[in-house]
Amino acid sequence: MGTHIEAVWAQVGNGRRKATARRLADAAARSCFALAGCKPSDIDMLINVGMYREDNMGEPALAALIQEDIGANLRQPPTGGTGTFSFDLLNGGCGAITAIQVESGLLKSGVIRLGAVVSSDVQPHLSSSPGVSLRPSGGAVLLDWREDFAGFTDFAAETFPEYQDLFTSGLVWQERHGVRVLRQDAGHNGMVVTVQPGYHARLADCAEEATRRFLRRLGLGVADIDLLIPAPSAPEFLDPLLARLGIPGDRVAYTPEDLEGTYTTGPIAALQAAVKSGRLDEARSTLFLAAGPGITVALALYRQTAA
């Protein structure tokens, strides 16, 4: 028995309207639920893991707005009934795996019956970060509990703070000089993202170390993993990681080209590729791996049958 992936959806902005994090998350959630044949009102918990929004906004919490947009139990539930509990969980590129871990625990306990994880990012308003770009995208995963299915069995997360300065981002006030008519013309906040040389190499180092430690704890080796679902998809991270772990390319779910460059949607995009190809169903043991600034590495093991 375990947490089962009922449906997954990932997409990029369609270009017809301005891509906003809220719209992208809404669209991904609706498509995911439609794929599973369920209604938004069926969702007991909705976790938003998106990070970067238009105009560098940090508030309000986006999960509640997504819940409102898709119509997931907007009224007070009846006595003894259940509603939809929603909140934001911000853990960068590792957020999707972290949220799946949270919902897995609640599914196992019976507190919820159906959980959703949604993501979305748009290109932030950058002040001075040449070469840094994010592909506007949204994703969603629908989870339920199956008595006859192993599903997600184990999770792990590690942080390597000694490398925290290799990737940093934050808001910096940019004062506007010259004649100003309105008070709000004084300036604006700009996002500054700094990526130091060697970041992706250290990312691969940490991911390898955390992966080997995780598998060793479970009594497994790399050879026991039939499929790897990794994020990010950047070749400067993924290529050295696969070489160090000794995982051949035919055991990797690669992110489709149109979804490369996504951030919090990265793990969901790679998962969608595995589902569409049928490889997730074929693999006995699947390893989810996400790595990002911090440096933080998140891992999850997904099994078709109990060990």
From TrEMBL:
* Keyword Acyltransferase on entry: yes
Keywords, in A-Z order:
Acyltransferase, Transferase
Q: Where is coiled-coil annotated?
A: none
Q: Which InterPro entries match?
A: ACP_syn_III_C (IPR013747), Thiolase-like (IPR016039)
Q: Where is the Beta-ketoacyl-[acyl-carrier-protein] synthase III C-terminal domain?
A: 215-303
Per the record, a Pfam family? Answer: ACP_syn_III_C
Lineage, top-rank taxon, reads Bacteria
Protein name (database record) = Beta-ketoacyl-[acyl-carrier-protein] synthase III C-terminal domain-containing protein
Name the species this protein comes from.
Answer: Trebonia kvetii
